[in-house]
Design brief:
heterodimer; A: mainly alpha; B: mainly alpha; about 0% strand
């Protein structure tokens, strides 16, 4: 497995490169699992914390907040996961079976706080996307995430290009309506 | 919102407008609060779809199982002595290598190349069609075919972040010895960019190469302290 420079990691992760994601899981994942397990958490919780931390880091890479600080990507990600884990422990009032994290809440960077809050809002959005019908999900993921063209999508789904275009509009209107109903959770 | 307006906002957010369309649209948004609201909402939805996709992808990966992490104390103790020996050997080796590298280093030009080694380029994944041209050029860059990489970089107008493109154009120029062009491009990279640290690092290298010692020192102060940027060695080069 080849090593990446910090910049390659960040840029690769920004473009959701599979090799880079695998590398991050193999190199940084075990450090986060260790942290959660020492804190009395389970393997499944470690996986969740790591995934949520990755999404939060991704949000701050995309919005430019990551670039404002000078930490290495791995330290940044671990820091995010630490705070996420801390928040979870605090909110679930679990019995403190594990070692307390050596964490100073004053160190909690406002940008990290922002990313964690955004990540929670994204989870709300994800649950709304899940309520769309399968065809809607296919269309919007192919178009906005995989960046396929209307004609590629129409071929893959066996629909006329115009139906894909209109369908995309309708699905997004539906998603928007769902989101406005949950506005209080998204602000 | 009607479909026409939706598609307009969409093409704005997906960066598909021409310069003129974009500035016209932005002027409209600036004077229309409800349109502003619509843009923000759609932007939120699109970024939610993006992380939904990301999560779908992340679900296929798992942290590798390592008995070390499930029962750290037991494992660590049994390997403790072995680890200590291994660490000792490693330290001896690296100190030795460091000593060797620092006392037997070649001339200044060689050392410049070692300290400011070329940016290795980005991982080239061809999966994402919108970045295809960029990664195609990146393959040439990584194969040290800088003239061809540059030629291809120069034809790309969208599909990749402007800073990413500017930075790698500068890197290709630098490898071809076009110092002036490289500096001009690196100067375009703003403080907010993820490439800013690296841009300042290579600007420091160019200043050293051109014998501008005080510029080099000033630039070096701005370079972030990370592993990639060997500031100590750069300082030694300046002081020589």
């Amino acid at each position: 497995m080849s090593d990446y420079t910090d910049m390659q990691l960040v840029e690769g992760f920004r473009s959701q490169d599979d090799h880079v994601i695998r590398y991050i899981y193999q190199k940084i994942g075990p450090l986060v699992r260790n942290l959660v397990i020492k804190g009395g958490g389970s393997d499944a919780e470690a996986e969740d914390i790591f995934q949520e931390g990755l999404v939060a880091a991704y949000i701050n890479i995309k919005n430019g907040k990551y670039a404002r600080q000078q930490a290495k990507f791995s330290s940044y990600l671990i820091q995010i996961c630490k705070f996420r884990w801390f928040d979870l422990v605090k909110s679930s009032h679990r019995k403190k079976g594990g070692v307390m994290l050596d964490i100073n809440m004053k160190d909690k960077d406002p940008d990290i706080q922002f990313a964690l809050e955004e990540e929670q809002k994204h989870e709300v959005l994800h649950s709304l996307i899940d309520t769309l019908n399968e065809q809607c999900k296919e269309i919007i993921l192919r178009y906005y995430w995989e960046h396929q063209s209307l004609s590629e999508i129409s071929q893959a789904l066996g629909m006329a290009p115009a139906s894909v275009k209109n369908g995309k509009y309708r699905c997004m209107q539906q998603l928007k309506k769902n989101a406005l109903d949950k506005k209080h959770l998204l602000r | 919102m009607n479909q026409e307006l939706f598609e307009k906002i969409e093409s704005y957010l997906l960066n598909r407008m021409s310069e003129t369309e974009r500035s016209e649209f932005e002027a409209r948004v600036a004077s229309d609060a409800s349109l502003q609201e619509e843009v923000i909402t759609l932007q939120q939805l699109l970024s939610g779809i993006d992380t939904y996709g990301l999560k779908k992808k992340l679900n296929t990966y798992h942290i590798p199982r390592d008995s070390n992490t499930t029962n750290p104390l037991v494992r660590r103790r049994s390997h403790f002595n072995l680890l200590r020996v291994a660490a000792g050997i490693l330290i001896l080796f690296s100190v030795g290598w460091w000593y060797f590298a620092n006392t037997h280093s070649g001339n200044t030009a060689d050392r410049w190349g070692t300290v400011f080694y070329p940016d290795p380029g980005l991982p080239t994944s061809m999966g994402r069609t919108d970045h295809y041209n960029f990664y195609d050029a990146m393959v040439d860059y990584k194969n040290d075919n800088y003239p061809l990489a540059l030629q291809k970089f120069n034809t790309i107008t969208n599909g990749i972040g402007q800073d990413t493109l500017t930075y790698y154009k500068a890197m290709a120029h630098l490898q071809l010895g076009h110092l002036k062009e490289a500096v001009q491009l690196l100067n375009k990279i703003s403080k907010e960019s993820p490439f800013y640290g690296a841009a300042v690092w290579y600007k420091t290298g160019i200043a050293i190469k051109e014998g501008r010692k005080s510029d080099a020192l000033k630039l070096l102060d701005v370079v972030p302290d990370t592993r990639e940027f060997n500031k100590r060695q750069a300082r030694e080069l300046i002081e020589e």
